[in-house]
Amino acid sequence: MIRALCILFIISGTACSVLEQTKTQEFRMTWKIDPEDKNGENSLVELSFVDFPGHFIGEYSNQLADHLKKEAREEVPATFEITRGAFGNVSYSVREISGLKQWAASFSYGGTSGSPERSPFE
User: Fold this and answer.
1) Is the dihedral of CA 61, 45, 110, 38 positive or negative?
2) Which tens digits make up the pLDDT trace of 55-72?
3) Which residues of the chain have pLDDT under 50?
4) What's the confidence (pLDDT) of residue 14?
């Protein structure tokens, strides 16, 4: 009985991970730095999706802020890894912003403002 339950548990866990879909996608984003909004010593960098108004991400990172200032472009590419789970749940991870693949951040978040019609992660 216990052996059968263990096998069922292993099979169901494997089935869920097999049903997950992961893809990498690049989005155009605008950015702004708010040096007054800090988490520890890190300033807030907020990036907004150009093609998905109302959707944004925030990174408290001086490294990212410095990089974007040096780039001096209003619009930058950002690469995300997007995972869709077996039960419709969606998660994402930012992999690259304007060529920067790694940065120290004390906190990050994603959000919406208003009632956006579409999501970048659909």
Assistant:
1) positive
2) 999 999 999 999 999 999
3) 6, 8, 14-16
4) 47
State the pTM of this model: 0.81
Mapping DSSP to helix (H, G, I), strand (E, B) and coil, where does residue 104 land? coil
59's tokens: 């990174």
Contacts of 76 (CB under 8 A, 6+ apart): 28, 29, 30, 31, 47, 68, 97, 98
For the chain, give every domain's residue range: 20-112
**Overall residue count recorded for the chain in this entry:** 122
The pair of three-digit structure tokens given for residue 102, joined into one six-digit string: 């790694």
Q: How far is CA 39 from CA 7, 22, 29, 35, 59, in A?
A: 46, 31, 22, 10, 10
SS3 71: helix
